[in-house]
Structure formats: structure tokens, C-alpha cells
Design goal:
Shape of chain A: globular
Structural class of chain B: mainly beta
Structural class of chain A: mainly beta
Largest sheet of chain A: 7 strands, mixed
Helix content of chain B: under 10%
Oligomer: heterodimer
Order of helices and strands of chain B: EEEEEEEEEEE
Order of helices and strands of chain A: EEEEEEEEEEE
Distance between the termini of chain B: 38 Å
Mean pLDDT of chain A: 91
Largest interface: A-B, 25 and 26 residues
Mean pLDDT of chain B: 94
Shape of chain B: globular
Number of strands of chain A: 11
């Protein structure tokens, strides 16, 4: 296991199109997070899964955004009817729920550009 | 609602000197604090952490200090090396919730 893997690394799409990103966490990790990062800002929390259950969603996650983790392993983040303001780096992270305090490990991110 | 703040967007230090990166937080429920380092085109990588029951944690050249009463933490890098040049994010968590600061870009000059 080489860590958290995100695909694609880059995505350019036209405004109004739908896009889907995939995240494969570290295999033994049962927590999975999605963050969004824009230029000059730190990662902003979007949503979080423990196993297949989506436990928390940020107000940033509008109705156009949906995330799934159907089997408690990989996760997908879909953005429908993309807008230029959705252009950002989308980061996935995973961690183990078995330790009380533990760091999250990040993937390399998917950079979305909406034109 | 920015619960974790890094007020210095950038810091420049000379190689061999100490780098001090600062972070403030507002949520007293945070009980675990982390520093991440990020290079361009890569995701953040974990650097060092500290639990709220401690006030200092050291790992090689990196030391994190926590002042709970001031809701302040800092990362000291000594001696600084050019390879330390990156963006450093402070993060704080309460249970499953992890929030990040906006980052400080550290440049270490040879």
C-alpha cells in the first residue's frame, strides 16, 4: 500500500458538466475525509466517512456535491453542473479510527479547473 | 468561521537559523494539534503533532509547543535547511473534526 491515491490528478471541464473524482484510502484506514483547497487557503473540510457511513457534511457541500463510500473502501466525490467557483484542489485524506488521536494522511489531490 | 489561524502568510529565514511558525485557535474543544508540510502539486504530508495533555513535542529538528491558555501553538525548526522550504499548515482536531489554518510559506535561503 503506497498511501492515499486520488484520480485523476487533473481535470479540466466546461462549466455545467458533471465531474467525478475517486479516492482510494490506505487500506486499513476506516476514516475518509474530503477537503477542498483554493489558492492561499488551507484545506477546507467538505465531508467525512467512517466506513461506509457519511457522518458529517460541511455547509460548503452544496446540493451539487455528493460523496459516496459504498463499501467502506474507496470513495467518490461528484460535482454536478460545475461552476467556475468550483475550481480548486480537492484533497482526500484517511486515518484510523482505532487510535484516539491520529494523523490523517493525504493523497496528492485532484486539481479541478472549470472553464 | 476560521477556528484555526495562521497570521503570517510567509516567512523567510537563513539556512542554519531557527524558523518559528505560529498558529492560533479559537475552539477550546480542540485537543489534538498537527503540523503538515506541503510542496507544490502534492498533498499535505504529516510532520508532527501534539496532544493537549502536553506542552511540547520534539522530533529531530522539529519541535511543537502548545500554550493552551493562550490557545497558541508554534512549530520550531532548527537548524533550518533549504529543503524545508514549503507551505506549512497548522491543524487542530476535536474528535473526528479537523480544521486547518491558511498556511505559512516558509522560504529557507542558502
Amino acid at each position: 500500500d503506497t498511501g492515499v491515491s486520488q484520480n485523476p490528478r487533473h481535470k479540466i471541464t466546461k462549466r455545467g458538466q458533471n465531474v467525478t473524482f475517486r479516492c482510494d484510502p490506505i487500506s486499513e484506514h476506516n476514516r475518509l475525509y474530503w477537503y477542498r483547497q483554493t489558492l492561499g487557503q488551507g484545506p477546507e473540510f467538505l465531508t467525512y466517512f467512517q466506513n461506509e457511513a457519511q457522518l458529517e457534511k460541511s455547509r460548503l457541500l452544496s446540493d451539487r456535491f455528493s460523496a459516496e463510500r459504498p463499501k467502506g473502501s474507496f470513495s467518490t466525490l461528484e460535482i454536478q453542473r460545475t461552476e467556475q467557483g468550483d475550481s480548486a484542489m480537492y484533497l482526500c485524506a484517511s486515518s484510523s479510527a482505532w487510535a484516539e488521536n491520529t494523523e490523517a494522511f493525504f493523497g496528492q489531490g485532484t486539481r479541478l479547473t472549470v472553464v | 468561521d476560521q477556528q484555526v489561524k495562521q497570521n503570517s502568510p510567509s516567512l523567510s529565514v537563513q539556512e542554519g537559523r531557527i524558523s518559528i511558525l505560529n498558529c492560533d485557535y479559537t475552539n477550546s474543544m480542540f485537543d489534538y494539534f498537527l503540523w503538515y508540510k506541503k510542496y507544490p502539486a502534492e498533498g499535505p504530508t504529516f510532520l508532527i503533532s501534539i496532544s493537549s495533555i502536553k506542552d511540547k513535542n520534539e522530533d529531530g529538528r522539529f519541535t511543537v509547543f502548545l500554550n493552551k491558555s493562550a490557545k497558541h501553538l508554534s512549530l520550531h525548526i532548527v537548524p533550518s535547511q533549504p529543503g524545508d522550504s514549503a507551505v506549512y499548515f497548522c491543524a487542530a482536531s476535536a474528535g473526528d473534526d479537523m480544521r486547518f489554518g491558511a498556511g505559512t510559506r516558509l522560504t529557507v535561503k542558502p
